[in-house]
Amino acid sequence: MTVMEQRGAYRPTPPPAWQPRTDPGPLLPDTEPYRVLGTEAAHGADPELLRRLHAQLVLGRRYNAQATALTKQGRLAVYPSSTGQEACEVAAALVLQDRDWLFPSYRDTLAVVARGVDPVAALTLLRGDWHTGYDPYEHRVAPLSTPLATQLPHAVGLAHAARLKGDDVVALAMVGDGGTSEGDFHEALNFAAVWQAPVVFLVQNNGFAISVPLAKQTAAPSLAHKAVGYGMPGRLVDGNDALAVHKVLGDAVRHAREGGGPTLVEAVTYRVEAHTNADDATRYRGDAEVETWRAHDPILLLEHELTARGLLDEDTQRAARDAAETMAADLRARMNEDPVLDPMDLFAHVYAEDTPQLREQRAQLRAELDAERDGQEGGHR
């Protein structure tokens, strides 16, 4: 008797009862990123939405520039700029209702600010002052996530819990292309699809996971194609087209709210500046590549559309710039104030009830601080 003749042996052909659980056709993304600006579809766009997107993009660009300058002045420990990606950041914040939740990564401070969080509070973590600088419940914004993709399972858990409770809530989770290589990404998408959780995953594909290009991370046709393997729709969108990102994310949020389950959106964009202020991007990409993407700048694309429709004049542009400068001046002034910090705050809000290890660490730090203070007082006698 051969191995294949044995009872229960593996056979290369599945039994007749096997069938696909989901028709893959409707889940597949388009072959090209979805665009609106510069097409006929843009002609029917709401003028107020276009103006709002423009004002937020100008504000966001100035915010990125000011935060980057603060790192050079020693007022921020690190800043991962989203310059060039502002369309994704702003659209993600604007498509959500007040009751919805945003789950950002470390690069998404602009989305956090656009959601309504105080600009200084949004930078507190990156300054090194506190675990997070804002109350997540006030604006329904989870803390900035510095570990890659760990916020994604949290978003799924919240969305699933909301659905079980009957709450009309959608979670939108943001992640970079590098985060799609993490196990948390797989676990989050798998659970979201199985549970049909009301969550939207926005992947900002900016070309590099620090210095690693996308081609060295995945051989998939696109990151949006990964959605099919989990049983959810994948959408591919031009991440520098603010109107297109707003439309695709808006559709995905409505789909989730109506019980349609999760969607994976890949926004094709570009990180114009370095990964952070500690990165030398010239070691892995050339100036010509960066300049090519500068010509596809999200602000320029939107301003071209606004100008063509007579919706952008000098007064409107000046008002947007003035608002951005006012924000930057306030951010600069407040970040130049030295905060009063208590090292013992390290242990606040870590657990609802202290663990033995936390109590031991607190006592050790208290003893060290008391000894340091006693030594300083003794030196002044």
From TrEMBL:
InterPro entries: Alpha-ketoacid_DH_E1_comp (IPR050771), DH_E1 (IPR001017), PdhA/BkdA (IPR017596), THDP-binding (IPR029061)
Cross-referenced Pfam families: E1_dh
Keyword Oxidoreductase among record annotations: yes
Cofactor: thiamine diphosphate
Positions of region (Disordered): 1-33
Domain Dehydrogenase E1 component intervals: 60-341
Alphabetized UniProt keyword annotations: Oxidoreductase, Pyruvate, Thiamine pyrophosphate
NCBIfam families cross-referenced by the UniProt entry: PDH_E1_alph_x
Name the UniProt record assigns to this protein: Pyruvate dehydrogenase (Acetyl-transferring) E1 component subunit alpha
Organism: Streptomyces vulcanius
Lineage start: Bacteria, Bacillati, Actinomycetota, Actinomycetes, Kitasatosporales
